[in-house]
Design brief:
single chain, alpha+beta, five-stranded mixed beta sheet, 16 helices, elongated, disordered N terminus, actin binding, cell membrane
């Protein structure tokens, strides 16, 4: 009994010593995780746990983001998780996102997981139009995204419509042109096919290298007011601080690079930027909330630290990571080369197998044809043998008939002498019959001539009778006959030939008009067809030129117009940032 009491006491003490916990849900760009955290944990404890779970070592780019009262905030590393203004209900949700962006993604992003997380985040920002991207760049970026997801293009696998369910282009770009989804897919696939041989990490890095040159890449915008109350935008990024017009987030009015800023501070809602050059006035502005000023300061400190860090020698940890990354990259390159060789060998083996199978089928067909020919030859031989037998029998029959004919000839010769007298009598009778027939023919000819003479006499008699009757009629009714002849002559339709000609002329004109109208309609349809298909027949070298004819100018946004103006002037993200510095030092008036 004493042992049982001691056991219960030990269990109770263990229960009391168990720390209190709360549940946290962490959402990355492509997954969600849940952790059980102790109430005493600070932001760094939770952040390190997430990084270890992801296998991430380049932690300085990332943070845990949450939203409080419609304002974005980041978890502080040195402050307890529960001391932040996070919702009380569980699980408490944080978003693991990139807080700071590199100046050069290819040089700074070492780990593949780091590159992948940046790729997913930047891609989402472009699709959500938080980063402005021109149409031609959107198509090129979409082709790299497809390469990262699907690997090398295979026309047998990636058939028409395989991108129908993919979100690859910003809606602004799709609405800007009169192009069907199939037309967009065709242009994306054309570039996708050119990326053959790129691994997923290489395609994602190419995506980031293009995206980092976009004007709004990596910039956090905040609404501010200057001392005069003018509404402006403050942009914070890896290069420095930038002041924008609210309607133009692409081109800053003035920029403060990090190496030219001496001090940044805030008091309540007022924020102060002190340039390194004391001849330049201090720039002050007001934000809407104190919390916003705290966030701005956090981003300024973090970006400034990374800015200075990039300009120093790499730390031992970074050097080790880069060495490991180079080794890993070399190993993967060798693996890819081995796989490529194996794939090539397999394809050659498959081609050889297909060729052998084809040859085997051909030989089988030839063997079948030879067998059929042999069977036909055997049948022909049998038929010829049967025919030879029949011919032999026929020859025997002919020989027998020849013998019988010879016997019949001898019999006829024997009877020929007896029939000679009969022959002479028959010839005499034939001569008599011929003489009788000749006489009958002469008599028939004579009778025919007499009949013709009678017919001629009858015709002359009728003609004489007709002349006599006519003369009699002329004597008795000369006047009546004359009137009747005149009336008959007047009744003839004199205009009939003219009517027929007019009718034919009308008919001809009508047919000619139909042909002209039909020809005009065919020509019009041909012109309309050529106009509709003109843009499909043109093969242009640059996609921007290719789709310019399909652009709907009335749907262009302000950022589209500003981007086109910057492009026509040759302005880019980097030279617009450096431009205000090249104009000399002068007091800031915004």
């Amino acid at each position: 009994m004493a042992g049982a009491i001691a056991s219960r006491m030990s269990f109770s003490s263990l229960k009391r010593k168990q720390p209190k916990t709360f549940t946290v849900r962490i959402a990355t760009m492509d997954a969600e995780m849940e952790f059980s955290c102790e109430v005493k944990w600070k932001g760094k404890d939770l952040f390190d746990l997430v990084c270890r779970t992801l296998g991430l070592r380049e932690t300085w780019f990332f943070g845990l983001q949450y939203t409080i009262k419609d304002t974005v905030a980041w978890l502080k590393m040195d402050k307890k998780v529960l001391d932040h203004d996070v919702p009380t209900e569980e699980p408490k949700t944080f978003h693991f996102l990139a807080k700071f962006y590199p100046e050069n993604a290819e040089e700074e992003l070492v780990q593949e997981i780091t590159q992948h997380l940046f790729f997913l985040q930047v891609k989402k920002q472009i699709l959500d139009e938080k980063i402005f991207c021109p149409p031609e760049a959107s198509v090129l970026l979409a082709s790299y995204a497809v390469q990262a997801k699907y690997g090398d293009y295979d026309p047998n696998v990636h058939k028409r419509g395989f991108l129908a369910q993919e979100e690859l282009l910003p809606k602004r770009v799709i609405n800007l042109y009169q192009m069907t989804p199939e037309m967009w897919e065709e242009r994306i696939t054309a570039w996708y096919a050119e990326h053959r041989g790129r691994a997923r990490d290489e395609a994602e890095m190419e995506y980031l290298k293009i995206a980092q040159d976009l004007e709004m890449y990596g910039v956090n915008y905040f609404a501010i007011r200057n001392k005069k109350g003018t509404e402006l935008l403050l942009g914070v990024d890896a290069l420095g601080l930038h002041i924008y017009d609210p309607d133009n987030r692409l081109t800053p009015k003035i920029s403060f690079p990090w190496n030219e800023i001496r001090n940044i501070s805030y008091s309540d809602k007022e924020f102060t930027i002190k340039p390194l050059d004391k001849k330049i006035d201090v720039f002050k502005f007001n934000s809407s909330k104190l919390r916003v000023n705290k966030l701005i300061l956090q981003l300024c400190i973090g970006n400034h630290d990374l800015f200075m860090r990039r300009r120093k020698a790499d730390s031992l940890e970074v050097q080790q990571m880069k060495a490991q990354a180079r080794e890993e990259k070399a190993r993967k390159q060798m693996e890819r080369q081995c796989l490529a060789r194996e794939k090539q060998m397999r394809e050659e083996a498959e081609r050889t197998r297909d060729e052998l199978e084809r040859r085997l089928m051909q030989l089988k067909e030839e063997a079948t044809m030879a067998n059929e020919a042999l069977m036909r030859s055997e049948e022909t031989a049998d038929l010829l043998a049967e025919k030879a037998q029949i011919t032999e029998e026929e020859a025997k029959l002919l020989a027998q008939k020849a013998a019988e004919a010879e016997q019949e000839m001898q019999r006829i010769k024997a009877t020929a002498i007896r029939t000679e007298e009969e022959k002479r009598l028959m010839e005499q009778k034939v001569l008599e019959a011929e003489m009788l027939a000749l006489k009958m023919a002469e008599e028939s000819e004579r009778r025919a001539k007499e009949a013709d003479q009678l017919k001629q006499d009858l015709q002359e008699a009728r003609e004489s009778e007709r002349r006599a009757k006519q003369k009699l009629l002329e004597i008795t009714s000369k006047s009546s006959y004359t009137q009747s002849m005149n009336s008959s002559t007047t009744a003839l339709p004199t205009d009939l030939p003219s009517y027929n000609l007019i009718s034919e002329s009308l008919s001809f004109d009508f047919k000619d008009t139909d042909m002209k109208r039909l020809s005009m309609e065919i020509e019009k349809e041909k012109v309309e067809y050529m106009e509709r298909s003109k843009h499909l027949q043109e093969q242009l070298n640059e996609l921007k030129t290719e789709i310019e004819a399909l652009k709907l100018k009335e749907r262009e946004t302000a950022l589209d117009i500003l981007h086109n103006e910057n492009s026509s002037r040759g302005n880019s993200k980097h030279n617009t940032i450096k431009k205000p510095q090249a104009q000399g030092r002068r007091p800031i008036c915004i």
